[in-house]
Amino acid sequence: MEITGRLTANAQVTEIKDGRKVVNFDVAVNDYYKTKTGEAKTVTAFYRCAYWISPHVARLLTKGTLVSLYGRTGVEAYMGKDGEPRASLKFHTSQIKILSSAHNQENSNIPEPERQENNTVNLPF
């Protein structure tokens, strides 16, 4: 399965008892549709993602980064702090494609440096 969304916070690397490391991060996936009356609606699903292949990718997974993820989904049921049962969507990530970094978004309004013209007179053609 493939999902595309933005990270809601910076990724965290956790080391488990046997020494393996997992990268944990949350992704918000927006779905858009129109009602029968033509009103535009947005529904956001939040996935708790785990990536076991390389912990080094965590430095690239910062809040706001747009990613496309491949893997499988699951559901986790747990008891909330208030004692009420809760559920969350899990995504066991096997492949990550970074589509746009949060850094690129912040710097998108920075003008490009001016180019200097190369006024070479001795052209062979």
Commentary on this structure:
The termini are far apart. The chain has a 5-stranded mixed barrel. The chain is mainly β and 125 residues long. A hairpin with a 5-residue loop joins strand 2 and strand 3. The C terminus is likely disordered. The radius of gyration is 21 Å and the shape is globular. The protein has a single domain, classed as OB fold (Dihydrolipoamide Acetyltransferase, E2P). It is built from 1 helix and 6 strands, in the order ββββββα. Helix content is 4%, strand content 53%.
- Rough outline: globular
| Count of DSSP strands | 6
Q: How would you sum up the major sheet? A: 5 strands, mixed, barrel
Number of domains: 1
What is the second-level CATH architecture?
Answer: Beta Barrel
Q: For the terminal residues, how far apart are their CA atoms?
A: 55 Å
The proportion of residues in beta strands is: over 45%
